[in-house]
Specification:
The protein is α+β, with helices and mostly antiparallel strands. Helices cover 31% and strands 27% of the residues. The protein has helices at 12-41, 50-55, and strands at 73-79, 85-91, 94-101, 106-114.
Amino acid sequence: MQDKTGRRVVSRGLMAAVIVMGAMIVVGMIALTGVVTWRVTHRTIFGPTPEAIAALPVGGETITHFVAPEGTRIKSVTPRGDGTVIVRLRGSDGEQLLVWDPARGRVIARFELGE
């Protein structure tokens, strides 16, 4: 669209939308930079601390090396930042998750997931 002098005319609504979107991109980049900076400078390990795990009442059995019980298979082993290991077992009665502390040789928690 052109006016009488031959210049292009831009809709005011379109120009406002472009300005607002540009401002949103700038604000988003500033926020993203702030979040990344915060997380890098305030690094923490999420989850329970080793002291909190040691204070838990444990009724589990003591084991120095982990062997899957008869009739079960170890599906996965996932180390955690606090030194414990999550062991996923699959057996005829369903799946189980074990939270195992290899340093102490104890099963801290056992979760039955069923079929």
